[in-house]
Amino acid sequence: MKRSGNRLVLLVGIFLAVVAFVLIVVSFQNGGTGGPRTSAPPDASVVVAAKDLPLGTKITADAVTTKTVKAGDKPGDSYSDPSMVIGQTVRTDVTNGQLITSVVLTGSAGSIADIKVPVGYVGIAVQVDQITGVGTLIKPGDHVDVVTVITGADKIPLVVLGSPSAAPPARATAAPGGSPAPSAATGFVANGLPYNSTTVKTIVEGLQVIGTLLPPPTAAASAEPGASGGTTTSLNGQQEIVILAATPQQAEAIKFSQTDGIISLVLRATADCQAKDGTASPCPIIPTTGVTLRKMVDDFGVLPPQIIQVLMPTPYPSPFPSRLYPSPTPNPSGSVAPGASTAP
Fold this sequence. Notes:
Blueprint: H1 2-29, E1 43-49, E2 64-70, H2 102-106, E3 122-129, E4 143-150, E5 199-213, H3 219-222, E6 239-246, H4 248-260, E7 262-267, H5 293-300
Antiparallel strand pairs: 1-2, 3-6, 4-5, 4-7, 5-6
C-alpha cells in the first residue's frame, strides 16, 4: 500500500510539472504578459492618383482611387475617402499611383525644390504683397493676369502737334477744337494746368503660376489649419514671390512694368482655365482698353476736375476761401463777398 501511494504522488507531481511547463510556454508566446495574444492592427485605405495629373488639374472621380496599407503606415496628411479630394486642384505634378496628400492640394509655399517650366515658356518671378498679390494667397497651378500702373510726367510720353523732326516748343499752342496741347518739356498744358499722367493696363493674361515663395509660417499660424488642410493667412503685410510661366515677349513686358511701374496680379477663376476633363487649359483672353483719367471721365462717369477762380488779391483773410457767389452767412471779417451788392 505504501508503494502504491508513493507512485500516485509521483504521477501527480509529473502531471503538475507538465501543466506548469505548458503555461510557461504560452506565457512566453503572449509576450510574457500572461494575457491573450493581441490581434494585428486593422488595415487602412489611402487615396492615390489613378493617372498622371499635371499641375493645375482638377481632380475628377476617375482620376483617383484607393489602396490598402497598414494602419501604422498611413501618413497623417493623407486622405481615406476620394470624395474629400474630388473637385480640388493639384498644386504640383502628380504621377499615377502617387499618394494624394494635403501638400498636393495646397502646395508647399515655404520652399521650392524644383521648378518645371513648360516647353516654349520661360519662368519669371514677380514680388507682390497682400494688396498687389490677392492677399498672398496665390498658389501653384493658379492662373493670373498681370496689371500694371505707370505714372509720372517723366514716364508717360506726351503727344505734341507738329513735325516729328521739329524740336518741341517750350509752350505748345492750343490743339484743334480749342483745348490746350501739352508740353513735352514740362509735362504741363499751355495754360499752366497740370495733366494726369497715370495709366493702367492689363498687359498679359492667363499666366500659370508654377511656384510661390512665402516667409516661414509662425508658430501661431502653423497651429491654425485652414479649410483645405493648409494654413490661414492674416493681415500682416507679408511679401510673396510668384513665379510665372510666360512667353519671352510677355517676360519683357513684365520686366518693363517692374522697372517703370507697379505690378498687380489678378487671380482668374479656376474653372475658366480648365477643360471639361479637368486638365489645365489656356484662359480666355478678354481685351481691355486700359484706363486713364480721360477714360474714367468718359466711360465711368467720373466728374472731371473743375477750375476754381480766385480773385487776386482776395478780400478775405487767408485761409478763408473766396466764393463765386454771395455768402449766405456773414463773413468773419465783415467784408463783402464777391458779387454781392454794397448798396444799402
